[in-house]
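User: Quick sanity check before I run a bigger batch. Here is a single chain. Can you write out its predicted 3D structure?
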Amino acid sequence: MTYCVSLKVAAGMVFASDSRTNAGFDQISTFRKMVVYERPGDRFMVLLSSGNLSISQSVRELLQVERFAVDGSEPTTIWQAKSMFDAARILGHTVRRVNDQDGPALRAAGIDFSCTLIFGGQIRGEAMRLFLVYSTGNFIEATPETCYFQIGEAKYGKPVLDRMIVPTTPLADATKCALLSIDSTLKSNLSVGLPIDLVVYKVDSLCCDDSVCIDEANPYFAMIRGSWGERLREAFEGIENPRWDSAEAQHPLRVRSERYELLRKIQNPDEKLI
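Assistant: Done. Predicted structure follows.
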């Protein structure tokens, strides 16, 4: 399985992905799910993938050379695309091409064409952009209201993102939040595992030196895994226990409401059972 997450804030972008593709008692496979396409000073793009591994590998290799005519112009590749939107359209075309090529054989074997992608970055002359690309090749773009995307086992790492990430979040905090989201997923799901690929991009830099592959020995990741668990326990213990009808309770649990009464059937103890 997979967990990948990308965040776009005003200060930059964060991309993170695990590397486990299969999990079982005697079968664990590791493949990288992140690839960076970079021409320093001109463009910086990152692709994260989930789904069928053979499909995603075909897509990311073809993407480097695939040509697509955007709006009737001359066919071009992501290396010549004038905008991230055009590059995302080329990616969608590449997904559809792989579907046309491999889809019939997969479906004949009873296998769904499964491939979901996160694609983001910046091309000189325009703002950073982030897209979620579906297996049909269509896509949506991140907005200030929804400034992050997840693919794969997304549910475990979503709460911390919902509570913490806004467009004005500092890049360092966004990086920390992405790692906490990964850690929450690792804690709850065996099918997601180390190592983790992490790339942090600063707005308008058009290149990136802040990248790392995180394994069990990484000191920062080990620190936040321990600290996050401790801080959650401290926060939990700092919340007062429920108190029902006490007059002294500032936040009583039981409040009277005509609308929300239990559906309750009480039998008279003297009533004879038939």
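The radius of gyration is 24 Å.

User: Great, the batch can go ahead then.
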